[in-house]
Design a protein that fits this description.
With about 250 residues, this protein is an alpha/beta fold. The chain has a single domain, classed as P-loop containing nucleotide triphosphate hydrolases (Rossmann fold, 3-Layer(aba) Sandwich), CATH 3.40.50. It has helices at about 15-30, 45-50, 60-65, 100-110, 125-130, 145-160, 180-190, 200-210, 210-215, 220-230, 245-250, and strands at about 5-10, 35-40, 75, 80-85, 115, 135-140, 165-170, 190-195. The longest helix is centred in the middle third of the chain and has 16 residues, at about 145-160. It is globular, with a radius of gyration of 17 Å. The structure holds adenosine-5'-triphosphate and magnesium ion (MG). Adenosine-5'-triphosphate (ATP) binds near residues 9, 15, 16 and 120. The site of adenosine-5'-triphosphate has 19 residues, from helix 1, strand 7 and helix 8.
Length: about 250
């Protein structure tokens, strides 16, 4: 039985989909049988991050009871398995979120990892992902509004008896106003599993519909995501050789 890991933030827009899509690709490259699911049911956009063309069968058809989740599996050109969400308004009508747990558990039966992209906020969809996961990774930005919501995610996950692995701090830009690592650790009382710098190549990769680790595998955020993802599964990161200029740039943004 594979592990189900939900990526949740509380506050929206902090980088969950960016992290989960790239992490899934890294785990797949490390040889782990990985499935990534768009658990952001009301505003799904995982498929856009992964550059998936409109796929005829989606998680929404599963949640309407029309198909089995295995029929909604899209195989990405890299071999990664993806359960996309339906992006049309009609997709939203008549879904039953209570069908989600059984579907996700069935995916875990034949995989090493099921990664769930959580919804923004702390509504029913985000809570469902937290409830059914074995582990939660909390994504935050280094600011008070995100950390406040991250703390709520931690407490809610604990209420569900779901293990919280730690937090990933995204969009670090060394501004004076940013919370420090020590402040984040003392507020959340969690280990920091990853520190991802602000990187203009992230929006560029989304615009190009090529996930960052494939688009610019040596960019600062890409390297940080590869480190986090490899640590998550206890493996050494696969880092390509870099020019001296790239190494200096990465060191400066560490
Ligand atoms: N490290 C980064 N550097 C620069 N921009 C980033 C970084 N991470 C995320 N972004 C930008 O932040 C925006 C939101 O990212 P993303 O969609 O991954 O967040 P989210 O938490 O999944 O949002 P939502 O809660 O709406 O699902 C994107 O436009 C992305 O380009
Ligand atoms: Mg998202």
């Amino acid at each position: 039985m594979g592990r189900i890991i939900a990526f949740i933030s509380g506050k929206g827009g902090v980088g969950k989909t960016t992290l989960v899509s790239n992490t899934a690709l890294v785990l797949n490259k490390l040889g782990k049988n990985t499935i990534v699911v768009d658990g952001n049911v009301t505003t799904p956009n995982l498929s856009m991050h992964l550059g998936i063309p409109l796929y005829p069968i989606t998680l929404h058809d599963v949640l309407k009871g029309d198909v089995n989740i295995k029929e909604a599996t899209y195989i990405h050109p890299t071999g990664l398995k993806v359960i996309p969400g339906g992006i049309g308004i009609e997709d939203l009508k008549g879904m039953n979120l209570d069908l989600l747990p059984e579907s996700i558990f069935s995916l875990a039966e034949d995989s090493d990892f099921v990664l769930v992209d959580g919804a923004a906020g702390l509504g029913k969809e985000a809570l469902k992902s937290m409830e059914i996961a074995d582990d939660v990774v909390i994504i935050t930005n280094p600011d008070l509004p995100s950390i406040t919501e991250a703390l709520k995610v931690k407490k809610l996950s604990e209420e569900f008896n779901t293990n919280v692995m730690g937090t990933v701090v995204n969009r670090i830009n060394k501004r004076k106003t940013e919370l420090t690592d020590d402040e984040i650790k003392s507020i959340l009382e969690l280990p920091i599993l990853g520190k991802i710098p602000e990187d203009p190549l992230v929006p560029q990769s989304i615009h190009k519909k090529i996930p960052l680790v494939n688009h610019k595998s040596n960019s600062p955020a890409s390297i940080a995501i590869k480190r986090f993802s490899s640590n998550l599964v206890g493996e050494e990161p696969i880092l390509e050789s870099q020019s001296i200029f790239q190494r200096i740039a990465n060191w400066l943004t560490k």
